[in-house]
Write a structure and sequence with these properties.
- 74% of the residues lie in helices and 0% in strands.
- The protein is an all-alpha fold.
Length: 313
């Protein structure tokens, strides 16, 4: 297995991470617009397919092409692809139904579920501090989605409920991906994990073809292709950021996505965050930051798992 070359350049690391987070939000906005008329499964196909040339060029430039194309645990990559692709499809479906900031806030339930699954599936010891942080974060998620849970005759209420449950389901699946990657990185090269996710997601998304793919308009085609290219670049930036800084230092900058989502949502989609969303997001972020701080205190190195975590949305 590879030994990554790292340098201690926190400024460079933070800049790369913030650029990646911003581009992921731009990509999400493109997907949100396109999925108003294009099915989520079709959007996953374009997102994954057009990210592959970017990722392959990056892998080739790094000299890791052989490692990327020859996996040790092929079935491990397939399972990771199944969980990750399902999470992406649910997120894209949620984006078509909910405001961008709300989708982003609910999506940050992933670290909470990761802690729970780590205890149940990996046998990790989870003590009171992290359990409290998980409870705090999940309470925040509940506050965000609570207005969506009261389904009545109003169509928007029903659609919003479906969207919230889709994004919550995606968060659970992404947590399973995180757990799976913690095992996968023991035998697999980072380049292989990144490449095979894009490949499996492209192939698996074709299974949605019988469920109503459409011929995209010129505008939607541009949005979908651009989303793939931008997502590929963002994935490279976030992976590269860990060459210059530690995971525990960079992890809190993931939450900058909430700021970017609020700005893009307001100016592009005229979405104004609700009081519930803001209050819940604060608790979600606080719970996530406490988990990150505690893992750093315990000396848990999540570096490789964070490098190859599923692309946002």
């Amino acid at each position: 297995m590879q030994t990554p070359s790292t340098q201690n350049k926190p400024g460079t690391a933070i800049a790369l991470k913030l650029m990646a987070v911003f581009l992921f939000m731009v990509m999400a906005a493109m997907i949100k617009e396109a999925t108003q008329s294009v099915p989520a499964g079709q959007a996953v196909f374009f997102r994954s397919l057009f990210a592959m040339p970017i990722i392959l060029a990056w892998i080739w430039q790094k000299g890791d092409l052989r490692e990327a194309l020859i996996p040790v645990n092929l079935m491990g990559h397939i399972w990771r692809g199944l969980f990750g692709t399902s999470a992406m499809a649910l997120t894209f479906g949620g984006l078509s139904l909910l405001p961008l900031p709300e989708v982003t806030a609910i999506g940050y339930a992933t670290p909470m579920f990761t802690v729970i699954f780590a205890a149940l599936m990996l046998g990790e010891t989870v003590r009171l501090f992290r359990l409290s942080a998980v409870a705090l974060g999940l309470a925040g998620v509940l506050i965000v989605i609570w207005p969506r849970l009261s389904v009545d005759a109003d169509t928007l209420g029903t659609v919003g409920t479906i969207g919230a449950l889709m994004v919550l389901g995606a968060s659970i699946l992404r947590a399973l991906v995180q757990i799976h990657i913690r095992t996968l990185v023991k035998t697999e090269h980072t380049a292989a994990i990144v490449f095979y996710f894009s490949l499996t997601a492209t192939i698996l998304s074709l299974l949605s073809l019988p469920f109503g793919w459409v011929v995209p308009s010129t505008k939607d085609m541009i949005l979908l292709i651009s989303a793939g290219l931008v997502g590929g670049i963002a994935q490279i930036l976030v992976t590269s950021s860990y060459r210059f800084g530690g995971a525990s230092m960079l992890a809190p900058f993931d939450y900058a996505a909430l700021i970017f989502a609020a700005i893009i949502g307001y100016f592009v989609f005229a979405e104004v965050p609700t009081l519930n969303m803001v209050a819940g997001a604060v608790l979600v972020v606080l719970g996530g930051v406490l988990i990150i701080w505690r893992e750093r205190q315990l000396g848990m190195d999540r570096r490789k798992a964070r490098q190859v975590t599923d692309p946002k949305g």
